[in-house]
């Protein structure tokens, strides 16, 4: 069973690895979002309304990115998040997501990085930090090759820590064992 990460100190919002899933098997984008939201709710990181808010936002503002290895960065408004963090999932097979900024565009996503923000002011910094990581083909390939949740958590934590300035405080890794699956 997963446990929620401790809340950050006052004025120190960052994205700790909350939930990590290797080879998540879902038929479509809604399935990916629903599965990750359920894991996040299990650990107390999000409220009961998070899953629906997440799916509604993704329908209105798709987050699929045509990065060298296609990724998605779905997220919900801070009002639905209890503890800031980051959910990362590699997918068992590519899943079509709507392409960000392109009407009716589709991207076959291999990796999902879901920022959980409680402060809207941190939104842009967190997304910029994630974009740096997700644009790095070698880094994403390394994450995709993780054989299980533990290896994915270790690799993601190392990649996040290597971002310039620790991603200027926007992204960090949590203590070992936080958010591990049962």
Automatic annotation (TrEMBL):
<dbReference type="InterPro" id="IPR002178">
    <property type="entry name" value="PTS_EIIA_type-2_dom"/>
</dbReference>
<dbReference type="InterPro" id="IPR051541">
    <property type="entry name" value="PTS_SugarTrans_NitroReg"/>
</dbReference>
<feature type="domain" description="PTS EIIA type-2">
    <location>
        <begin position="13"/>
        <end position="159"/>
    </location>
</feature>
<protein>
    <submittedName>
        <fullName>PTS sugar transporter subunit IIA</fullName>
    </submittedName>
</protein>
<dbReference type="InterPro" id="IPR016152">
    <property type="entry name" value="PTrfase/Anion_transptr"/>
</dbReference>
<keyword id="KW-0813">Transport</keyword>
<dbReference type="Pfam" id="PF00359">
    <property type="entry name" value="PTS_EIIA_2"/>
</dbReference>
<keyword id="KW-0762">Sugar transport</keyword>
């Amino acid at each position: 069973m997963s446990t929620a990460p401790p809340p950050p100190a006052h004025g120190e919002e960052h994205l700790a690895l909350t939930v990590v899933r290797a080879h998540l098997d879902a038929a479509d984008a809604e399935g990916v979002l629903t599965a990750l939201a359920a894991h996040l709710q299990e650990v107390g990181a999000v409220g009961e309304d998070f899953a629906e808010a997440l799916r509604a936002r993704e329908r209105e503002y798709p987050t699929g990115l045509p990065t060298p290895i296609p990724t998605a960065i779905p997220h919900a408004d801070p009002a639905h998040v209890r503890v800031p963090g980051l959910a990362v999932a590699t997918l068992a097979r590519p899943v079509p997501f709507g392409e960000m900024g392109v009407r009716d565009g589709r991207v076959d996503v291999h990796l999902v990085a879901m920022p959980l923000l409680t402060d809207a002011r941190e939104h842009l910094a967190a997304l910029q930090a994630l974009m740096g990581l997700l644009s790095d083909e070698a880094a994403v390939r390394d994450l995709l090759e993780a054989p299980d949740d533990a290896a994915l958590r270790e690799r993601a934590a190392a990649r996040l820590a290597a971002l310039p300035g620790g991603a200027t405080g926007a992204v960090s890794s949590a203590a070992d064992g936080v958010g591990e699956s049962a």
